[in-house]
């Protein structure tokens, strides 16, 4: 597609459940980022992929969060045993530039609500 | 500790005036600083990138300055229009890093 696609756009789940959020980056973009944004805050870095590997996962808050990008394109963010504090908009972005950061192209986000 | 600070109070401005937003940082040595626009319910959209060795960058009605001594970037929207109403985010990347770190954003409301 023309832009970064994220699904689902909205997800409501119950505390303790498992959630997967999907990101389809712009074709040809090797760099992929996940951010989390709470209401009234700026995006908070979670993880960065260069190709298939996670080059920097220092932003993942704890071991309930995991992300994969098995073929270097689509990425899935996985959250186990969800907690109410996980409620936020999860943003995915891709970039053409490797290593240094060029312009990031963001998706519209997946809004996660944990009841 | 590291901080990126943007004015959390909304900036209300009259159409046609210049809006000036501030981004201050502490304990960073950024190689790049970027500005993004974010509309409600949407992802951020890239506007401008300025490098540490650049003082100023312009794009149409937008101007960004970068002062590494003051540890500050200023973002100007000249001849502002109601369509410029949005939240504006600054983000920086350090030379050794490979991720953008964002400030909290400043909401701008341009009144006709």
How are helices and strands ordered from N to C of chain A? EEEEEEEEEEE
Q: What is the residue-averaged pLDDT of chain A? A: 94
Question: Helicity range of the residues of chain A?
Answer: under 10%
Determine the mean pLDDT of chain B.
94
Q: Kindly estimate the percentage of residues of chain B that lie in beta strands according to DSSP.
A: over 45%
* Topology, number of strands of chain A: 11
Termini gap of chain A:
33 Å
Q: Give the SSE string of chain B.
A: EEEEEEEEEEE
Q: What's the end-to-end separation of chain B, in Å?
A: 41 Å
**In percent, how helical is the residue content of chain B?**
under 10%
Question: Which term fits the overall shape of chain A?
Answer: globular
Beta-strand share of residues of chain A: over 45%
Total of helices of chain B: 0
Low-confidence stretches of chain A: none
Largest sheet of chain A: 7 strands, mixed
Oligomerization status of the protein chains = heterodimer
Question: Structural class per helix/strand content of chain A?
Answer: mainly beta
Number of strands of chain B: 11
Radius of gyration of chain A: 13 Å
* Overall SS class of chain B: mainly beta
CA gyration radius of chain B, whole angstroms: 13 Å
Could you write a compact summary of the structure shown?
Chain A has 115 residues and is an all-beta fold. Chain A has no helices and 11 strands. In chain A, strands 2, 4, 5, 6, 9, 10 and 11 form a 7-stranded mixed beta sheet that branches.
């Amino acid at each position: 597609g023309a832009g970064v696609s994220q699904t689902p756009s909205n997800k409501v789940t119950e505390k303790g459940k498992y959630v997967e959020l999907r990101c389809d980056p712009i074709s040809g973009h090797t760099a992929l980022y996940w951010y989390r944004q709470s209401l009234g805050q700026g995006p908070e870095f979670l993880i960065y992929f260069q190709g298939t590997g996670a080059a920097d996962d220092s932003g993942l808050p704890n071991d309930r969060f995991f992300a994969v990008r098995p073929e270097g394109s689509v990425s899935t963010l996985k959250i186990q045993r969800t907690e109410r504090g996980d409620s936020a908009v999860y943003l995915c972005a891709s970039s053409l530039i490797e290593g240094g950061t060029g312009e990031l192209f963001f998706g519209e986000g997946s809004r996660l609500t944990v009841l | 500790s590291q901080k990126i600070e943007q004015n959390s109070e909304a900036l209300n401005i009259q159409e046609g005036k210049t809006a000036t937003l501030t981004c201050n940082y502490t304990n960073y040595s950024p190689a790049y600083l970027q500005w993004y626009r974010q509309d409600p319910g949407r992802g951020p959209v890239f506007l401008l990138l300025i490098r540490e060795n650049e003082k100023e960058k312009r794009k149409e009605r937008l101007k960004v300055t970068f002062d590494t001594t003051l540890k500050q970037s200023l973002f100007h929207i000249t001849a502002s229009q109601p369509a410029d109403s949005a939240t504006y985010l600054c983000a920086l990347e350090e030379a050794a890093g490979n991720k953008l770190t964002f400030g909290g954003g400043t909401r701008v409301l341009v009144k006709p």
